[in-house]
Amino acid sequence: MRVTTKMINNSMMNQMSTNKNKMFGLEEQYNSGKKIQRPSDDPIIAVRSLKLRSTISEVNQYLENNIPDARSWMEITESSLKNMNSIFTKAYTDMEHGANDTLTTSDRKSILENLKQYKEQIYHEGNVDNAGRYVFTGYKTNNSLLFDRDEDNLDYEITQTFGRDDMERIQRLTGTYNVTDYDSDNPDADMFKKPPEMVADLYRIQLGYKDIKDGSITADSITYTTTDADGNKVSKPINTLGFTVTNIEVGDQDIYNVQDNEIRINSQTGEILFGKNVYDALRLQEDGEIGITYGKNSFESGLVKPEHYYDCKVTNKYGEVTDYKHSSQDIYYEINFGQKIQVNVNMENVTGNEFARKIDDLEEIIERVGNIEKDIEEIERKLKDSGINEEQKKTLNALKSQKEIELSLENDNMTETFENGLYYIKEYQAQINVSVANLGSRMNRLDLVEDRLDSQKNNYTELLSKNEDADIVETYINLSSAENIYNASLQVSTKIAKTSLLDYL
Amino acid sequence: MSSTFFGFDIALSGLTTSMAQISTTAHNISNAETEGYTRQIVSTRAGNPQSVNNTVGMIGTGTTAIEITQERSLYYDDKYRKSNALTGEYATINEYLASIENYFNETDENGFTTMFDNFFNSLSNLSNDTSSQEKRTAVSLQAQSFTEYFNNLYENLQNVQADLNTEIKNQVDRINSITKRVAALNQQIDVIEFSGQNANDLRDQRAVLIDELSSYGKVEFSEKTINKGKNNIGQKSTLLKFNGEAIVNNFNSRNLYCKVRQNKDNQNDVNGLYDIVWEDTGDDLNLFGTATQGSLDAIVKLRDGNNLRNLSGTASGNKGDKEIILNDTTINDIYKLNAPEQGYITIDGHDYEYTDFEVTEVDNNGKKSFSYKFYLSEELKDDVNDKNGAIGNSIAFKGIAHYMSEMNEFLRTFSNEFNNIHNDGTDLDGQQGIDMFVYKDNITGSKSELTETDELTEFRSTEASYYHMTAGNIEIADDIISEPRKIVTSKNVDNGVSDNGKLLDMMALKSDESMFKQGKPMAFLQSMVSEIGVDRAAYKRFAQNQSDITNSINTQRLSISSVDVDEEGMNLVKFQKAYELSAKAFNVMNEIYNKLINELGI
């Protein structure tokens, strides 16, 4: 082939440009530390890098944000549950003391004071927050568990549902006497002949709160729901079953003398009392549900807010209504690809509002026992009076002996209430233990996931580096060899381009 | 009997021939670096011998220079031009794909995949504390960065499209100027060659112009002798074809011009795109055919390439109607629909302008498809039943139009899925959720509320729908920007602020494998990057290979036609020596006649 100067020049320029391109590419790799600078350098590496980077970004999100957030929430929950458990243990000791020992007045007082303290502490533990968010209140993290001050501006309409086992048998006295029944001018020992006695077959449902709105429970607001043959729930007002509903007025005598077909409402103590026939009828159906709707508009500070336990409608002073439907409010955090974990424990799974009510019961019975003792002391004082005549003495003794009978009955009652309290504390502790165990296993899972993510992060980071980082040693060697080639080509080119025949003519 | 001074004549012929050869060599040397110059050679022939009246026989009469010819190989010219058209095509595609690729350069950790990840991380953060104002603001900001990134990308791609459009105009102007000069050269060459001379240098000039033209398109050049004339050179008829169509016929060139489109071909096109048409007939220039190559073809493909995703289908309508219905169409998905709001629908070579269209879904034995009704601004000239109707061109190339429509598909699909969840819940104030991803209306400039899911299959081009949402106009609802409390996290906030159920649903969208045929949303974005990466890598390789091929053809061509200075140097020495010897012969003759005339005096 004929080779001309122009051909040689063209070819030299081409080769030089190829060499320079090669060096440029290597120089870019060397300076950026990356094998590829743009997707077209190697689309496979580029897309693999994108995938890995996206995965690492997600893993980081889990490791640096979601898991620590979940852990801090769970740790606070856990320590709070443990505190509650130990407070319950203390309360248990006091209750046991009350149930087993003969108590002096001051004993009872101090036990009651202690228990009230414990109750406060327990609910206070339920009020803890994680960076301003209450941990035990489900989704309502901006709403504290307790009323933090006396609240009179919110009008609650609370609906509670009860099963047949929520009806408990209680012992209340009827036919008791007051010291004021004694008339010193007309002493009559026969007046105090009939001893007080326990009401047979008295049943009650204890509402979540005492001091509910007077008259807020009517025949319509108590419903009874059963399942019919087709499996449909049928709900009807309780009076359609043939029972009467009555409200007790303050100061009524013999409030526990409930008729067989009667349902009595004691809004002061927050109790619904059932007569024998009512109880028997309601006992029949295993899945029967008693729904009770009542109103309450004044809450003392420290009481739990109803919306955390029950369905309720709240009207504030501006007339705005919020409708709370009670449901399972489990908060989930995403802690791994497609893996969620429940971080919270709902207060209803820890301690019901009932514990506070058991303490109310105790307070009430202790107060009753105290009052009887005071009455007896007063009668004794009257007996020691110097100007007392025989008839008066006889009458007072009769009253005293009836009061002593009453005292001994109520003492039994008190012991039983303490025992009842013991039972509830055991139940709550068992519940707390389940919650703690459950939480613990979730925390274990969190740790496992974290470990796995940690090692995944390392893996992915290493893969990413392997995928896209240039091997500096290799790049350097390639770069120097490209440099050598370039130098050589320059040398040869100049040599060839410089000479021609003219040099020798 | 020869003339007494016959020897002088022979020496003289040697002198003039050598002189011509030396001049041609000098011409060659001085043009050694001239672009397109073809070396010239003086053809010589020994003079006709004369018989002399003695026993010696015939005697030579010296030399004659017959003609000066070019060492040009028409075969390699043709081969070079064919190869050069492809080189031009690949080089142009490579160059512009590189600029598109720069905008899709996800390797630098600041691309849309990062934005997308960040947005979802901000959602994840919010799900850990749904009441936090800072985290809500972060979600709103990340969502804005995400949409703004696409707005930017869209604008950049539109800029590339506008650049391509300008480049089309430049190239067409250049082609017109080349063809005018070729026509003029044809005429000059004809004049010279008709008189029996070779118009070597003019031919070189013409060849250079045709070489240049061959990078713009596929060029065929043919030359036929129609009248032999003097010296067998004579009159020629020439024909130059560009992409298969005659562009210079003898002394006449045809002009191309750029006609501004009144309507868009694709929804996302910038305004004022050009169509290339012949000035004389008004017909479109032949492009995107199998017979067309070259950088002009490449640029139009880059600008309009929609990967065969234009709208076409079977038309129905009768003469006189002002409506056309299209059924069995290529596009049955609002997310993929990129026909312009107003435009032309082409049936049987006639463009009917439509001002508005309406889409309904038809169910054909369980197979659902779209039926389009176009409202025309003029009456149908003929029945169009069962004829194919199309909007824009179907171009099998992934150009700007393709990438824009990919982005639109992604954003429309994702926005709809996201908005559906966001609508199905309440914000922090208990209000029903609003659309988070909205679009800014092109005409009114206000942000539009979007439509319900069932309107994805029934909509009108004049009404709000996801059809109008593009990467260029997608935005975050004003209410969410100004009031992050509007971000929905739960089905019903009355249950409590920390209910993150809806948020978890939104987060699950990130790993929703069924959202696209490519899989998860991220896979769609990644496949977009890989698409441009693979395409560019392929064209980089094609461009390199094709340029190597063209170079090697050129080398072969140069091997024949280019000037070699060594050779010319040698020729110079050779011809100088020949000249000197001829002069010597003259001297010898001179001495001989001196002897004869002066010293043999009688």
Topology of this structure?
The complex is a heterodimer of chains A (505) and B (602).
Chain A: H1 5-32, H2 43-100, H3 105-125, E1 129-130, E2 133-134, E3 155-162, E4 168-169, E5 173-174, E6 197-198, E7 203-206, E8 222-227, E9 233-237, E10 244-247, E11 262-266, E12 271-274, H4 276-284, E13 289-296, E14 311-315, E15 321-324, E16 332-336, E17 339-342, H5 354-383, H6 390-468, H7 472-498
Parallel strand pairs in A: 10-11
Antiparallel strand pairs in A: 1-2, 3-13, 3-14, 4-7, 5-6, 7-12, 8-9, 8-13, 11-12, 14-15, 16-17
Helix pairs in contact in A: 1-7, 2-3, 2-6, 3-5, 5-6
Chain B: H1 6-30, E1 40-46, E2 50-51, E3 58-59, E4 63-70, H2 74-103, H3 112-128, H4 133-194, H5 200-216, E5 219-227, E6 235-242, E7 245-249, E8 252-253, E9 256-260, E10 274-278, H6 295-304, E11 312-316, E12 323-327, E13 343-347, E14 350-364, E15 367-376, E16 388-390, H7 400-423, E17 437-440, E18 447-448, E19 459-460, E20 474-476, H8 478-482, H9 501-508, H10 521-561, H11 565-599
Antiparallel strand pairs in B: 1-4, 2-3, 5-6, 6-7, 7-8, 9-10, 11-12, 11-16, 12-15, 13-14, 13-16, 14-15, 14-19, 17-18, 17-20
Helix pairs in contact in B: 1-11, 2-4, 2-5, 2-6, 2-10, 3-4, 3-9, 4-5, 4-6, 4-7, 7-10
If you had to describe this structure to a student in words, what would you say it looks like?
- The complex is a heterodimer of chains A (505) and B (602).
- Chain A has a domain at 155-298.
- Chain A contains seven helices and 17 strands.
- Chain A has helices at 5-32, 43-100, 105-125, 276-284, 354-383, 390-468, 472-498; strands at residues 129-130, 133-134, 155-162, 168-169, 173-174, 197-198, 203-206, 222-227, 233-237, 244-247, 262-266, 271-274, 289-296, 311-315, 321-324, 332-336, 339-342.
- In chain A, helix 2 runs antiparallel to helix 6 and helix 5 (354-383) runs antiparallel to helix 6.
- The radius of gyration of chain A is 42 Å and the shape is rod-shaped.
- Chain A starts with a helix and ends in a 7-residue tail after the last helix.
- The mean pLDDT of chain A is 89.
- Chain B has eleven helices and 20 strands.
- Chain B has a domain at 6-71 and 563-599.
- Chain B has helices at 6-30, 74-103, 112-128, 133-194, 200-216, 295-304, 400-423, 478-482, 501-508, 521-561, 565-599; strands at residues 40-46, 50-51, 58-59, 63-70, 219-227, 235-242, 245-249, 252-253, 256-260, 274-278, 312-316, 323-327, 343-347, 350-364, 367-376, 388-390, 437-440, 447-448, 459-460, 474-476.
- The two termini of chain B are 23 Å apart.
- The longest helix of chain B is centred in the N-terminal third of the chain and has 62 residues, at 133-194.
- In chain B, a hairpin with a 2-residue loop joins strand 14 and strand 15.
- In chain B, the strands form six sheets. A six-stranded antiparallel β-barrel of chain B has the order 11-12-15-14-13-16. In chain B, strands 5-6-7-8 form a four-stranded antiparallel β-sheet. In chain B, strands 18-17-20 form a three-stranded antiparallel β-sheet.
- Chain B has 602 residues and is of the alpha+beta class.
- Chains A and B meet through helix 1, helix 2, strand 15 and strand 16 of A and helix 2, helix 3, helix 9, helix 10 and helix 11 of B.
